[in-house]
Amino acid sequence: PEGKVGEGERAIYFSGEKGRVSFNEKIIKVYDSVKVDHADSRSTADKLLVDQSTQKAHLIGNVHSIFTPPDSPRLEVNSKKAFLNAKNNMGEYQGDVVGKVQFENEKLHPRIKFKSNLLKMNLDERLIRLKEKVYLERHLIKINALEGKIWLKNYQSGVKYFVLFDDVRLTEKLDLGNGEEILRKAFSEKIEGFPLERKLVLSGYPRV
């Protein structure tokens, strides 16, 4: 089966090998080789539930999404389940969320890897919110926190690209240039990243 929910640029298109329709509940169930296209993204999953009344799609099992918007870097997200909303262009990923932000020139702009238990995404604003056991890695820097945000459209000079807050813990490997490395640790309530300047700003009782 193939179909769509919603209208215009925000419409969600879906397909799969098998399907079932509940006319009373206005629910479409799709199984096996599930594919979903929505707002410059392609997602796959084991199972899909589409609610025609609310224009929401629920992806279940081995969810894998790739976002390739023309004005932002490539974004890849994996999780146990996800929810897409055609009305407000929002997305939510739950359970063992793992992802990465990848740029065209990785030598100049290293990719950002992240993990969390919950990810909420505003596709119009290109804003990612991470919650619960947040982990972010960029080059030799690793950061743990309780919450975080990534702005996919803010990759420019003088503008913060990501922020992590609440119980922030940072580790960084430093090359001394003589074959030796040291591990630097820092703690704070908040950390802001300015990637083009390769700068991190810690605030809220920072300790290094």
- Helical segment tally? 0
**N- to C-terminal separation?**
57 Å
The helix/strand class is mainly beta
Instruction: Please bin the fraction of helical residues.
Output: under 10%
- The backbone outline, from C-alpha atoms, is elongated
Mean pLDDT level: 87
The biggest sheet, with number of strands, parallel, antiparallel or mixed sense and barrel status, is: 14 strands, antiparallel
Write down how many β-strands occur, each being a DSSP E stretch of 2 or more residues: 14
How large is the share of residues in beta strands?
over 45%
Summarize the helix and strand pattern as letters. EEEEEEEEEEEEEE
Low-confidence stretches: none
What is the alpha-carbon Rg in Å? Answer: 19 Å
Which helices and strands, and how do they pair?
Elements: E1 2-5, E2 12-15, E3 18-22, E4 27-37, E5 41-51, E6 56-67, E7 74-85, E8 90-102, E9 112-122, E10 127-138, E11 141-151, E12 162-175, E13 181-194, E14 199-203
Describe the structure.
There is one protein chain. The protein has 208 residues and is mainly β. Helices cover 0% and strands 67% of the residues. It contains no helices and 14 strands. It has strands at residues 2-5, 12-15, 18-22, 27-37, 41-51, 56-67, 74-85, 90-102, 112-122, 127-138, 141-151, 162-175, 181-194, 199-203. Strands 1, 2, 3, 4, 5, 6, 7, 8, 9, 10, 11, 12, 13 and 14 form a 14-stranded antiparallel β-sheet that branches. The radius of gyration is 19 Å and the shape is elongated. It starts with a strand and ends in a 5-residue tail after the last strand. The mean pLDDT is 87.
